[in-house]
Write a structure and sequence with these properties.
Maf protein, globular, alpha/beta, 30% helix
Length: 203
């Protein structure tokens, strides 16, 4: 049986503003106030694992240990089948410039890599989200969500963040970048992981 979360204030171990806003919106109906890592002056720990759950655990446990509060961390990314699951856990790394992250550059690289291997259409992919809720005593709970779809080119839409403009979920003719966040949050990988979290930790 999962350990219940019984607070009304949750530390989310992320410095990603878009991700923080998305999680805050998804948890709003449950009366939970979300606080981000930047607001708590927490450093970003080095993500040294090669799995989503491994990196989410690093972030969640570091934040819980530093603050004495339960902490929720997300590690997420896009897996492209024709690229053997890349960029996967290295999704954000593909966007790293040294002065910040450039996701247009990352999406362009993804498209170029697909062209190099002459990937057939549809270029199937999925967004994955793994959430870890960690307590200061070292206990944690893990929740996962995925949404299947395909990579499209050129990029479409200016909403969302990350790889959203090149990902079209199955059953839709819009990319995540063309959807408003309310629509995206009904079906996204993170919404599905949050739904599992709510069912598991709110009873």
């Amino acid at each position: 049986m999962n350990r219940m979360f019984d607070g009304d204030r949750l530390l989310v171990a992320t410095h990603n503003k878009g991700k923080l806003e998305e999680i805050a919106h998804l948890l709003e109906p449950f009366g939970v106030t979300v606080v981000g890592a930047a607001e708590m002056d927490l450093p970003e720990p080095e993500e040294t694992e090669d799995t989503f759950v491994g990196n989410a655990r690093i972030k969640a446990h570091a934040a819980a240990k530093a603050t004495g509060l339960p902490a929720l961390a997300d590690d997420s990314g896009i897996e492209v089948d024709a690229l053997n699951g890349a960029p996967g856990v290295y999704t954000a790394d593909w966007a790293e410039t040294g002065q910040g992250r450039d996701f247009v550059m990352a999406m362009t690289r993804t498209h170029d890599e697909l062209e190099k291997v002459n990937a057939p259409y549809p270029r199937t992919a999925r967004f994955c989200s793994t959430l870890v809720l960690a307590w200061p005593d070292g206990h944690d709970e893990v929740f996962e969500g995925k949404v299947e779809g395909q990579c499209v080119w050129p990029m479409r839409g200016m909403d969302g963040f990350g790889y959203d403009p090149m990902f079209q979920p199955d059953g839709y003719d819009q990319t995540f970048g063309e959807m408003d966040r309310w629509e995206k949050n009904k079906i996204s990988h993170r919404a599905r992981a949050i739904s599992a979290f709510v069912k598991g930790c709110f009873g």
